[in-house]
Specification:
Number of domains: 1
Low-confidence stretches: none
CATH superfamily: Ribosomal protein L13
Number of helices: 6
Strand order of the largest sheet: 1-2-5
CATH class: Alpha Beta
Number of strands: 5
Distance between the termini: 35 Å
CATH topology: Ribosomal Protein L13p, Chain: A
Structural class: alpha/beta
CATH architecture: Alpha-Beta Complex
Shape: globular
Strand content: 15-25%
Mean pLDDT: 92
Helix content: 25-40%
Radius of gyration: 17 Å
Largest sheet: 3 strands, parallel
């Protein structure tokens, strides 16, 4: 019988992957991105090692939502003080800070551990089609 391969953190090969969000559903993109960040698409996936790739999302503002989510869905946060609940509508977050919206949504799909902090740092979100990572992607495979 073959032994299970457990990869070490210094043996992980990271690629840069571009995901174009234009005209795609928000949740479908996020599940794909969470899988890429976690590294589950690789044959040597190890749960206790961050073996995911760098992901660049472009055209983040042009994503589609089903139903009335743009008007009704809210993201809540707490300041730490009494009565300190603050809410932001999905539409406002998408216009003002799409990177925060994507990171909030993807963070919920990642494991609840210190590994998730390292994984979410590899997510880069840009509202337009231009991004400063062309050098890295030309070196890597850029899918």
């Amino acid at each position: 019988m073959k032994a299970t391969i457990a990869i070490k953190p210094n043996e992980v090969k990271r690629d840069w992957i571009i995901v174009d969000a234009e005209g795609k559903k928000f949740g479908r993109i996020l599940t794909e991105v969470a899988t890429l960040l976690r590294g589950k698409h690789k044959p040597y996936f190890t749960p206790n090692v961050d073996c995911g790739d760098y992901v660049v999302i472009i055209n983040a503002e042009k994503v589609e939502f089903s139903g009335n989510k743009l008007d009704t869905k809210q993201y809540h946060r707490h300041t730490g003080y009494f009565g300190g609940v603050r809410s932001d509508k999905l539409n406002d977050l998408l216009k003002n800070n799409p990177a925060k919206l994507y990171k909030l949504a993807v963070r919920g799909m990642l494991p609840k551990s210190n590994l998730a902090k390292d994984m979410i740092k590899k997510l880069k979100v840009y509202a337009g089609s231009e991004h400063p990572h062309t050098a890295q992607i030309s070196q890597g495979e850029g899918k």
